[in-house]
Amino acid sequence: MEQFVRKRLAFLASFWNKLRPSSVPDNCSLGYFGADLVSPQPDWDPDPALPTSPLFVALYDFAARSTNELSVSRGDKLRVYKEVGEYVVARRLSGKSIGYVPANYVAKISQETPSHQLWYFSGISRHEAERLLLSPPNEHGSFLIRDSESSKGEYSLSVRNQAKVSHFRICKCPDGSLYVQKGHAFPSMEELLAFYTENWKVIQSPLVKPCTPPEKDEWERPRSEFTLRKKLGEGNFGEVWEGLWRNTVPVAIKIIKQADMKAEDFTKEIQNLKSLKHEKLIQLHAVCSRGEPVFIITELMKKGNLHSYLNSLEGKSLSTLHLLDMACQVADGMTYLEEKHIVHRDLAARNILVGDDLTCKIADFGLARLLKDDIYSTSGSTKIPVKWTAPEAANYRTYSLKSDIWSYGILLYEVFTYGQTPYEGMTNQETIQQITRGYRLPRPSTCPSEIYLVMLECWKGNAEERPTFFALRENQIRACTCHPRHPM
Ligand SMILES: Nc1ncnc2c1ncn2[C@@H]1O[C@H](COP(=O)(O)OP(=O)(O)OP(=O)(O)O)[C@@H](O)[C@H]1O
């Protein structure tokens, strides 16, 4: 799969190289992935007995990919001799061999903080702690210590209790001792945790084992690698910015409003996004999901969303053939989602992005399901895109690939009217009422009759009678391209 993406996105080769370093095969030479990825040749001569080398701890397992790298397991204590670019030269305390380990796989052990302890998660928020503890492999009794958000220098204990997470403030006395309950202080965090592990009923939350961090995620990048340059727009999920990765690669950055997300759903859904790859779907490049706000980084589409583009001077000059081609590209991407049984729920011209050469790609797949129920509900909410939504989805929230087909019909209407709003002059309420009574949008004067027939197929009241995306792509839309009766 990765080879496929690398091939398709050849122009982003160096970006991919940096995003997915661990895919360097054992026998890889500098040629394919670029010199900056492969750990440098050894040029150190440390004295392993040097007492001054700082002590580090491995945060993740790392398997050496060449003889100049050092394999480490999470929790291993390491002496670090020097930092070389994105690597450190290290030796395990329990071993003799020395080698390179990626710098972001290790953390320095300091005397003041318990950073070498597996239960200590530095710099994460309450929300992030919940997300971690509720994600597999963590389970009932998983716990962690984090820095308190509201009280600098103090800590919080977060414990997973079945499907919930409880948080306890750990306060510091002037003499440095720590307590959860006033009058019951402990000289160290270790002793405090030992007490509550034994006497967990006091806090009604058993401390079974330290939280396991998610596997080192190659999509995860530090937020500092991205620069925001220009705001492109704003949707239900937050703002979208044009930005740069490491000051060189142009990207689009979606800044997610965390408050609107359900933490467990978010983790699951991002996993889905990572697994979807198709040339007609916006490609996810990276995420910054540790800490807030969450950044979702995707490829940048220079001409923005299809709705605005169709309304622009350039868009207005497109021929019917161009419009058909764009409709075909969307059907192509939707066929891929259909094969994967993924329902988009918000298919509309505003969620199609346009790039050079009129390339169209579907955006926001999967994200629609992340919105909290109260925002996405039909009751009294204006957020539901009623004019794009099939009647069974608008009335009973029964979303399916067939309700996406309905939305595709509306998208066709938008395309062939150069971005007109459907049901112009009608309120959402009136639209639902009229549709339920059998009313359908009339054929726009700029729309070939063959295409209008396809729209009507998509708007069949009985969802089962609507075509599939596969059929639309293979037959209906393409047939219109081959046998146009309308001037192209
Ligand atoms: N990858 C991208 N490249 C270029 N522009 C983008 C990209 N992603 C989004 N945009 C721009 O930012 C705008 C806002 O995008 P966003 O996906 O947040 O909201 P939306 O699609 O308008 O609404 P909704 O929240 O209903 O999906 C888009 O309309 C588009 O113009």
Summarize the structure in words.
With 488 residues, this protein is an alpha+beta fold. The chain has helices spanning 2-8, 13-19, 30-33, 126-134, 189-198, 263-275, 306-311, 313-316, 320-339, 373-376, 391-396, 401-416, 428-436, 449-458, 469-482; strands at 55-58, 77-84, 87-92, 98-102, 106-108, 120-121, 142-147, 155-161, 164-172, 178-179, 185-186, 209-210, 226-235, 238-245, 249-256, 284-288, 294-298, 352-354, 360-362. Helix 9 runs antiparallel to helix 12, helix 9 (320-339) packs antiparallel against helix 15 (469-482) and helix 12 (401-416) runs antiparallel to helix 14. A hairpin with a 5-residue loop joins strand 9 (164-172) and strand 10. The longest helix is centred in the C-terminal third of the chain and has 20 residues, at 320-339. The strands form 4 sheets. Strands 6, 7, 8, 9, 10, 11 and 12 form a 7-stranded mixed beta sheet that branches. It has a 5-stranded antiparallel beta sheet with strand order 4-3-2-1-5, with no helix packed on it. The chain has 4 domains: 55-108, SH3 type barrels, CATH 2.30.30.40; 120-210, SHC Adaptor Protein, CATH 3.30.505.10; 218-300, Phosphorylase Kinase, domain 1, CATH 3.30.200; 304-483, Transferase(Phosphotransferase), domain 1. The two termini are 38 Å apart. The protein is elongated and about 80 Å long. Adenosine-5'-triphosphate (ATP) binds next to strand 13 and strand 15.
